[in-house]
Design a protein that fits this description.
The structure holds 2 protein chains of 2 kinds. By secondary structure, chain A is an all-alpha fold. Helix content of chain A is about 35%, strand content about 0%. Chain A is built from 5 helices and no strands. In chain A, helix 2 packs across helix 5. By secondary structure, chain B is of the alpha+beta class. Chain B is built from 10 helices and 11 strands. In chain B, the strands form 5 sheets. A 3-stranded mixed sheet of chain B has the order 10-9-11. In chain B, strands 1-2 form a two-stranded antiparallel ribbon. In chain B, strand 5 and strand 6 form a beta hairpin. In chain B, helix 3 packs across helix 6 and helix 7 crosses helix 10. The chains are: A mainly alpha, B alpha+beta. Chains A and B meet through loops of A and helix 1 and strand 7 of B.
Chain lengths: ~150, ~280
């Protein structure tokens, strides 16, 4: 009886906490590579997203994508598509899916999955079981990409 | 953020124009001898038409350093190995020169390595250490430390200009297969295989770096980044760390197999040892 009530309380706490907790990488729902629901429920911050985009220790998206919106950065990679007009081409849900795990949409792509924490071969110990970006950083990058309309 | 986009886009392009790319059609000529920096891809590199030296993808300034041995910083280390060649070491009272009178006699060795000896895949580092431990009674050198890379550079440069020509059939076949498998296996948190960058995307910029085919015909190579000679295995390790993967061991079976496979993808390119890269 006592045990039951404690379990009920814990379950109740978990349920309410779930609202504030980001969606875990393993349960992100992809539909044809698209992720409709926000990973955090908190609106993305495009200003921080811009930093994440260029920061070599975070997204380092600039390593592979030319981004005409940040000409102050000297080196833009050419491996992936250019970012100009990306907001005209992709919806929020599509961008969230592509940033989180683009392999769900583009099989065989070189692009890393930025919100995935399992299924890697020989990950360095300090990155093992971790995502490249946090859920909020993904939301921030998506919010930033949505500003890149032509 | 968006209103000045056209202007910003134009500024962005001008930044790229400042990047000093190598000239199209530049030739690698050292001491009057032209090295082969492009060749038809061998049949076993089935996804590419042409193999190309990493020299092609470096800036003009970096390229220039390899054109003259007096400018090439690697020769400081080659000179150290020339001194080492005559130095007695170990319990048997021998130097390299006790058995090998002229290092020039090693012309022709570099292009054939790694190779299978008695069922084992051996790299030049193994041959050097076998001499040290079996015949000189000396301590083996560490795979990527200065004494070893200097010595492999000295022995390798004797073959400069000769075409890479490793055996991949017979005894070598299972090692080659393993190397090929590693080449195409995605690893690390960034989940990339060698092929993702060096086969699918060579000759494109990845941030400030101009991606090459990852050829190993110039190793050990002097890197401006760390101002020393680097073994191919040390470079493999660096690549793996970059993609956040746990590297294999230098001198271990995985990197040896990969070394054989990569060497075979450079079949026909000249040995460039010791090359200069970023």
């Amino acid at each position: 009886m006592k045990l039951f009530s404690i379990t009920a309380v814990v379950a109740g706490l978990l349920a309410s906490a779930a609202f504030a907790e980001p969606v875990a990488p393993s349960v992100v729902k992809y539909e044809d590579g698209v992720v409709m629901a926000s990973l955090t429920g908190v609106a993305g911050d495009p200003v921080n997203g811009r930093d994440v985009f260029k920061n070599r220790k975070q997204g380092n998206c600039l390593a592979c994508h030319v981004n005409a919106e940040m000409p102050e950065e000297s080196f833009h990679g050419e491996v992936g598509p250019e970012m100009a007009g990306v907001a005209d081409r992709w919806s929020v849900g599509e961008l969230r899916g592509i940033v989180s795990n683009s392999k769900m949409m583009f099989e065989g792509t070189i692009m890393p999955a930025f919100y995935r924490d399992t299924g890697f071969d020989r990950p360095l110990e300090k990155f093992s079981g971790k995502t490249i970006l946090t859920a909020q950083q993904v939301e921030d990058v998506v919010a930033y990409l949505r500003t890149l309309a032509e | 953020m968006m209103m000045t986009k056209t202007l910003l886009g134009a500024a962005c392009l001008s930044v790229f124009a400042l990047t000093v790319h190598a000239e199209e059609g530049a030739k690698l000529i050292i001491d009057g001898e032209e090295l082969t920096i492009r060749a038809n891809a061998p049949a076993h590199a089935e996804n590419i038409d042409e193999v190309s030296s990493g020299w092609i993808y470096r800036s003009k300034e970096t390229q220039a350093l390899q054109l003259d041995d007096f400018d090439n910083p690697a020769f400081v280390f080659v000179d150290q190995a020339i001194d080492e060649w005559d130095k007695v070491d170990g319990s048997e009272g021998k130097a390299c020169s006790s058995c090998h009178e002229n290092v020039e006699d090693f012309a022709g060795l570099r292009p054939t390595l790694p190779r299978v000896d008695d069922g084992k895949l051996v790299s030049m580092e193994n041959l050097v250490n076998e001499c040290r431990t079996e015949r000189m009674g000396a301590e083996p050198w560490k795979w990527s430390k200065g004494k070893m890379t200097s010595m492999t550079a000295l022995i390798g440069v004797q073959s400069r200009g000769m075409p890479v020509n490793v055996a991949i059939d017979g005894d070598a076949a299972p090692f080659w297969d393993k190397g090929k498998e590693l080449y195409y296996t995605r690893v690390g948190q960034l989940d990339m295989a060698c092929s993702n960058c060096h086969e699918d995307n060579y000759d494109t910029m990845i941030r400030a770096d101009h991606l090459s085919q990852g050829q190993i015909n110039g190793f050990p190579t002097y890197r401006l980044k760390n101002a020393k000679l680097n073994s191919s295995h040390a470079r493999f390790k660096g690549c793996m760390s970059n993609i956040r993967a746990e590297p294999y061991k230098e001198g271990g079976p995985e990197f040896q197999a990969l070394e054989l496979y990569l060497a075979s993808r450079g079949q026909g390119l000249s040995v460039e040892t010791p090359s200069v890269r970023n």
